[in-house]
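Dear H.,

Thanks for agreeing to be a second pair of eyes. The structure we're designing against is below in token form, covering all 260 positions.
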């Protein structure tokens, strides 16, 4: 009688775990889409600013999220199939994929956190040099467009302030046509509006574009890190549930063999 009760209890736990894992994998699949979306959004919507950074850590973190998101969606689908079939070999493969994706997303989260710590110093060392030496120079069109968008989007002028442009290779050249700052510094852009650098005409922001860009990137790095680490922790829950389900299936198989 006790054996029968125990078998029924084990069957009930197995069924509950099975449906719990199925629901988890469905949510996991949806989470993969969110992770991939965050990575793509970061690169597409904010990609213009990547050329202004000295290192590629920010972009690498976003690419890792896209890779992890794609793997999560595929793994979530495979997990649903493995749970329905109740095959331990498929569940073992699924379990291994969970651990792999966990490590990938953890790396993305850690990279984002580490880069967050040194972001301010990198911008201070690199942004001013990039803006003054590369703006409007041959073969530097992407940087020129990025600087113009940066100054317009964040309503700023120069890396620290508008006077930084006095050291610019472009402003010193004949191409500037006596401009004191690029036209993208102007509150209302008109041809050669950069000839007048009065606060009524151009953006005068305390801290310049460095402060604005630093805050912007820091916020997005926190999002990347939080998404990566958050989904990674969720996968640990899935790995534990999968291990428990595999153990119950193993026990059932052992009991079936012993009955024979």
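And this is the sequence the design step returned. I haven't edited it by hand at all.
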């Amino acid at each position: 009688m006790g054996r029968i009760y125990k078998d029924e209890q084990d069957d009930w736990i197995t069924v509950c775990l099975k449906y719990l894992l199925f629901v988890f994998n469905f949510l996991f699949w949806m989470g993969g889409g969110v992770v991939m979306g965050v990575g793509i959004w970061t690169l597409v919507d904010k990609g213009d600013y990547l050329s202004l950074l000295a290192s590629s850590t920010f972009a690498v973190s976003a690419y890792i999220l896209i890779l992890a998101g794609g793997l999560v969606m595929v793994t979530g689908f495979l997990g649903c199939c493995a749970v329905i079939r109740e095959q331990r070999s498929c569940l073992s493969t699924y379990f291994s994929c969970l651990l792999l994706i966990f490590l990938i997303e953890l790396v993305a989260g850690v990279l984002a956190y580490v880069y967050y710590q040194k972001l301010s110093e990198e911008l201070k060392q690199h942004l001013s040099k990039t803006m003054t030496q590369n703006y409007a120079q041959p073969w530097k069109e992407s940087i020129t467009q990025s600087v113009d968008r940066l100054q317009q989007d964040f309503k700023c002028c120069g890396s620290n302030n508008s006077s930084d442009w006095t050291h610019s290779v472009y402003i010193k050249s004949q191409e500037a046509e006596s401009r004191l700052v690029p036209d993208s510094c102007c509150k209302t852009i008109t041809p050669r509006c950069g000839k007048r650098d009065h606060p009524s005409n151009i953006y005068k922001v305390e801290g310049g574009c460095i402060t604005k860009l630093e805050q912007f990137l820091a916020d997005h790095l926190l999002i990347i890190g939080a998404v990566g680490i958050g989904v990674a922790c969720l996968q640990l829950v899935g790995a534990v549930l999968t291990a428990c389900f595999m153990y119950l299936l193993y026990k059932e198989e052992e009991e079936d063999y012993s009955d024979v």
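Two observations from my side: Residues 1-7 have pLDDT under 50 and may be disordered. The CA atoms of residues 250 and 256 lie 10 Å apart.

Warmly,
E.
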